[in-house]
Structures
1.
Amino acid sequence: MEDSFVEKIVEKINPDSSSSSSDSDDDAVLSSFKPKIKRLFGRETDLHGSLGGGKAADVLLWRDEKTSGIVLGVATAIWMLFDVLEYHFLTLVSHALITGLVILFLWTNGSTFIKKSPPHIPDVVIPEKPVLEFVSDLRIAINRALSFLREIASGRDLKKFFTVIAVLWLVSIVGGYFNILTLFYIIMITVLTMPLVYEKYEDEIDSFTHKAEAELKKQYAVFEAKVLSKTPRRDIKRE
């Protein structure tokens, strides 16, 4: 009895407390019934965790703004130097080596006159193990690529075949407008901007992407029923 009397007094003094608590309860209930958006690529963690959660993820998402700015600045400088100013790579390497050798030569031979110790030039030796590991990994990657191309050419998976053809056709179109250096620069800019934009508009992009994916699957089902199902296939025996 006394508790109910006290509650009534408190409610009269601060009527917003009960309404705010009820509103928070209603929000919690509504949030529990809110449809969960299916994330891109079926990921269950946040974008930072999906990118590895390390230094690279910090750079791509601009959590480490200094390093991200340096990477963008270096990429822009390289593109401006070799593409816009048309500075040749061999010329740059030659000028850098000439400058370095002249500085070391003058420093070594002039150290006695300036009364300073000559520079220590370390012996640079390429270890054998990393080179062999790199060559072995490269050989495995090339063999996998050749096996993949053989499987595509066999015609067993028409969906994969038309996907590869479409990608190669798109690459040929893009290659007609940009040289390889400009293309790499565009890829670098995309890598440094798209994750940040995606993280900011994650829900909207995921919703649009899954709608587009459903429509593409629908159109492909129609194409498969009308064209691919009537295309003769032949199996190639695996060696």
2.
Amino acid sequence: MASAAVLQVFGQPASTDVARVMACLFERKLEFELVRVDTFKRGHKLPEIVKMRDPGGQVTLKHGDVTLTDSRDICRYVCTEFPRWCTRALYGPGALERASIEKWLQAEAKSFDAPSSALAFHLAFADLAAAPDGGGDDYARLAVAAEESERRLLEVLDVYDDALARSAYLAGDEFTLADLSHLPNAHYLACAARGRALLASRANVARWFGAISARPAWRQVVALQGSGAHGPAAAGASPSHDAHGAVGI
């Protein structure tokens, strides 16, 4: 059975797709092997599983004979393949709850993802495109694009703020995949003052982001992103490093 096989995650911990998958695995309290793709740049043979991955994706899950390359589909798979090793609410205990979670997963993928990732990228890297005197056509073009992304994102946040006025989390009063899926992009937005101000501009969104970003599973993801480690990982403790750079729990 696939459930007994080792879970392997291929990708870069800093990738939003990889972070989403790791957060789900940590929430599920599942052990997995994180294989950094850059490990294979120094003359190592790239595994066939990584060669097979979707060129547009940033993460690959290998679990027995199962191969998945979309981070949201991976999270769905983890929640359904390992239903008894996790909080029951993460993907909904019934069809009605799951339909609500899916509505917000679609909202994240189709409405939140693009403007939030574009704005986070601009806030992190726009200075690299600027001319030495702080001007330049590239910087001006990026600034205009960032303003448009911010406008679109604020429209999305207005919808979220309204929904979060009625419940603690997007799909109700329990933390679910609907909330988890937003964490990677929201985290990168919050790394910049302008992004933090944007999230704080909507009171219910600010309260919600404060709650979901403080979850122990997400803090483990952030710790792994900062460690540069690869190897086996498990939920429940902070990473420590052995002589080979693996993550030990």
3.
Amino acid sequence: MSKRKHLGGIKEAEKMKRRMERVKVEMKEISKEQESIRKGQGEVKEKFKVIELECEQLRRQTDIMIRQSLNTQLRLCLIFQILKAREMSHFTKAASLTRILREVIAKQGKEK
């Protein structure tokens, strides 16, 4: 083997070695980036779970508020009908509506 070919082979080997070192460094950087991405994904997943729990809690609170509003509307409607019946001197109807109102109030009290 001539000296020239031998030196050329050594230079190629050195180039290859430098390339391999660069590849190793790049692989370490990529590995760090991937770990950072995994960590970020975990954090996002946790935050998403917290948000889901908060949404569920808000849904339950909204349902409670809707039920309370409907119960209030029912009571007001009965009270208005009782007043109207008394105004029209329909005391039997007023007594019946008053009994229904008491039952509604008692039922709602048990639900709480």
